[in-house]
Amino acid sequence: MPEPYAPMPDDWGRALAVVAHPDDLEYGPACAVAAWTAAGKDVAYLIVTRGEAGIDSLPPEQAGRVREREQIEAAAIVGVERVEFLGHRDGVVEYGLPLRRDIAAAIRRFRPEVLIGLNHHERWRSGDWNSPDHRNVGVALLDAAGDAGNRWIFPELADQGLAPWPGVRFAAMGGSPHARHAVDVSGSLDKGVAALEAHRSYLPALGPEHPMSDARGFLEAKTRRFGERFDGVACIAFEVIGI
């Protein structure tokens, strides 16, 4: 039998979620975000791309505008007021110094205790291959957490008024095949479902047979499955990585 999930630490007040695309957080982590904001925690979102390559029937510029709007709406549903987009190109996000610098700047600006990200490993729990955007953003986020606290890395950020921030305690990576912690979302699942449904232009583009096209069914099944390792309580699982 798989070992039970441990409760994720909750003795923190401020988090920054950093993912590649609009909608990445809504496939599970946003349910936890809704629980955290309801408990008084401050969460902000940083989206690396605008998701402009995600809807085949729409030109990229139009798709990017639509997906930005839908992400801002989805964030508001779970209690997140601050959403920023870095504008890296969707589908071809490169790991490297520019991405690390952009994320480190955001960490210095928001000064979070906790980072929330998405699976940075090569594969998902299912064994399916993970996308390069997810992998590159996830690894860059973990690296940028250290960059943000070191005044000798990207010293130009200090010249911009962004002082080093060594206060990040850990990162919680959703969707990871190595998750060992979980968050009770039994009271916030409805908000998580509504947040996923806010991506009303993107979800139909996945096709009617795609499991994520049924937002409620998808999230209820996921949280129920995770709950088998969390005393039967609906939950979202995270890999917790110390910084």
From TrEMBL:
Xref: Pfam families: PIG-L
Gene3D superfamilies, A to Z? LmbE-like
Question: Which Gene Ontology MF annotations are present?
Answer: hydrolase activity, acting on carbon-nitrogen (but not peptide) bonds, in linear amides
Q: Which domain of life is it from?
A: Bacteria
Q: Mind telling me which SUPFAM superfamilies this protein's record contains?
A: LmbE-like
Q: What is this protein called?
A: LmbE family N-acetylglucosaminyl deacetylase
For this entry, list what GO says about its biological process: glycoside metabolic process
Keywords for this protein? Zinc
